[in-house]
Amino acid sequence: MGNKLKLGLILASDSHFLGGLAQYQRNLIPYLSKKFEVFLISKSSRNKKEISKNFTSFEIKCPRISLIENFFFEFRVKKFLKKNHFDIINSQGFTGLWMNFPMKKTKLVHTYHGSTYHFYKNHLKRFNLLRKIIFSPVLMIPYFIERKPLKKADKIICVSEHVKEDLIKLHGKRKRIKVIRTGVDLEIFKKKNKKDSRKKLKLNSNKTYGLYVGRGGFWTKGLDKTIKLSKEIYKINNNFRLLIIGADKKKIQHLLDKRFTLLLPPQKRGDIPLYYSASDIFFSMSRCEGGAPTMVTSEAMASGNLIITDKEANQEIFKDRENGIVIKEDYSKEAKRISNILKNKRKVKEILRNSQKTVEGLSLEKWAKKYLDFLYN
Architecture of domain 5-183+364-376 in CATH? Predict the structure, then answer.
C-alpha cells in the first residue's frame, strides 16, 4: 500500500446510509482501492476512525441541524486536511468550502450529483407568493457553496448532462469538466424468476406490480405523481398494485389509497433486488434529480423492469417506446397508453431488450474505468 497514491474521498453525508451518495461511494471503492490507498472522510454523529479491507474511514462529528451541520463539516474537514496530506481529493455533492486554503501537490476533483441551487429552487414551487419572497434569499447559500469547487477544483465530474448544463448556466463555462454516468452492479441486479421472487415476498402471482423506491422527500421524488398515474392505471386494470418502499408514512398518509397502494418500510439493501425482480413496472418520476439514470432506475432496468418516467425527471437516456415509456401530464390518457403497451407482449419485450442494452453500458466496471481514467489523466 505504501507505493500507492493516497486518495481522500470527502462525503458530506452519513457513510452508513444505505443509498444516495454513500452507496455511490461504496460501489466505487473496490475499484479505486486497486489503484489508490483510499480514505473516506464523512459526516457523522461521532468522531471515529475505522480500518476496513479496502479503505480507512474517518467519521467527523457534526451537529444534526439542517444546513448548519454542513458548515461545521466544512470547517472540520479543513482542519483535518491541514494535518493529513492526500495526493488526490475527490469530494462529493454539497461540500467544497474547505477548498479555500491552498494545498500543494494535491489534485482536487469534485463530483456534482446535482445542482443544489436548483434543488432548493425546485422546493420553492410548492410555496405561495409570500413564502417564495421570504425564502428566495436562501438560494444564495447553495449558490455560493457549489460555486467554490467549480472554481477551485482541478477537475469536475457531473453525473449527467443536465447537471453539467445547470452548473454552466449558473457559474459559467470551465475546462476539465466531464460527464460520467453512475454505474450499476450487473451481478446483483439482473433479471430473475418473477414467480420465485413474488413467492419469497408473499406477493400475488397474478397481479401487475408497479414499484416506487425512495427515502427522500416524497414531493422531490415525485411520489404524488406516481400515485396519480397509478390510480388511472388501476381504473383500467384493477389487478394493478403499487409497491412503495422507504417513504415516511406520516408524510404520505394523505396520498395512499388502500385499493392499490402497498406501503412497505425501508428494506435491507440485500432484499431490494427481490422487489425489482417481483415488479413489472418501475416509476422514475422525480421533480429534481441529478443522475440520469438515477441509481435506483438503473438497478430497475438491469432487473428487467419496464421504466416509466417523464420529462420533468430528465432521465436523458430514455426514448419513448424504445427503451422506456416517457409520459406527459395527462395521466388518464397516459394510463391508457401504458395499458395498451403492456398488452402488447412483443412491444414490451422489445423495450426491455433495448433497456437491457442501455444499462449494460453502465456496468460498474465500465463506470469505474472512466472514473479512474479521469482521476489519473
Answer: 3-Layer(aba) Sandwich (3.40)
